[in-house]
Amino acid sequence: MNASRLGTVWVLAKREIRSSLYGYGIYLAVLISQVIASFVLINYLRAVTRDGMLITASPLAYPLFIATAVCAIYLALAAVTSISREKDMQTLEVLFYGPVDYVVYILAKYIKGLLSYGFIVLFFAVYFAAVSMVCNLGISAKFWGVILLSLFLSSCVITFGIFVSTLSRSVRTSVVLFLGIVGALVAVQVIHGTLTQVEEAGLSLPVVYLRNTLGIINSAVKWVSPFYYLNEGMEAVSIGSFTKYALSGGASLVYSAAALLLSTLVLKRKGVRKSGGM
Asked: How far is 168 from 146, CA to CA, in rounded Å?
């Protein structure tokens, strides 16, 4: 990509990030994520009070992952609505009369998402630093490793949202499609994970069949689910495996690159002119 196209990517991304920072959505997402993280921390502190001692290498890591997931979903949803709205209002068609092509447009949306998450991380750092001082939990080096890994994991969710947005021209359809796919992927992963923790002797025959079926489905779809990579990152942190940590970050990069490539190809195939379809 030459300097001119990179400059165009930056101009578009800068316009997008400015619009995002002047809106209230990103701050509401941060607030909701921190409220949820606070509930997780409160439950942890209650467990410590009840049991007297609870050993964990990084007590702030899991709440941070929860906060990351909430904000990443918001950023993905923001990308879905932004791209679909621009297609629906024919703004996208106008952009493509200028020095903008499919690659430039998709990269601009992606960079906007990453920069937005970088801005959100600043709030996370302040919030968890305050929690550390108030609750005397301590911030370990592993916590900052989680901060770095969360950038890769949020990238998966953002690129997934961008890809879904290219499948439809209607804002409503895109949002329903995104939420439906996300809900289905999370449901399969959570239900299968819950059932696998129960011994087979304690399950009825239909539930055993359900667990086996969900296992097959989960094996097939886990590679396309951004939340699978989030779960792998959480596991890498919990067991303290640097190898698994690095593999999780690398896999997230590959996933993001593949999603961006598919987004570009789908958008190019569908075109930017408003017409019938989804």
From this structure: 34
Percent of the chain with pLDDT over 70: 89
Q: What are phi and psi of 60, to 5 degrees?
A: -90, -10
Tokens encoding 62: 């899991």
Average model confidence (pLDDT) across the chain: 81
**What is the Cα–Cα distance from 4 to 51, expressed in whole angstroms?**
61
Where do we find the tokens 């489905």?
217
Cα angle 20, 22, 27 (rounded to 5 degrees) comes to 70
Is residue 47 within 8 Å of 54, Cβ to Cβ?
Answer: yes
Give the number of residues written for the chain: 278
Which value, in Å, is the radius of gyration of the alpha carbons in the chain?
A: 20
Pair of tokens at residue 91: 């703004």
The pair of structure tokens assigned to 73 is 């979903």
pLDDT in tens, 37-95: 888 888 877 776 666 555 555 677 778 888 888 898 899 898 888 888 887 777 777 77
Give which of 123, 149, 125, 137 is closest to 237, Cα–Cα: 149
If one counts every other C-beta atom within 10 angstroms of the C-beta of residue 187, the result is 11
Name the nearest CA neighbour of 186 among 231, 251, 152.
Answer: 231
Cα 162 to the chain's mean position, in Å?
Answer: 11
Cα 163 to the chain's mean position, in Å?
13
Checking if the pLDDT of 236 tops 50, the result is: yes
pLDDT at residue 276 tops 60 = no
Measure the CA–CA gap between 70 and 225, rounded to whole angstroms.
Answer: 15
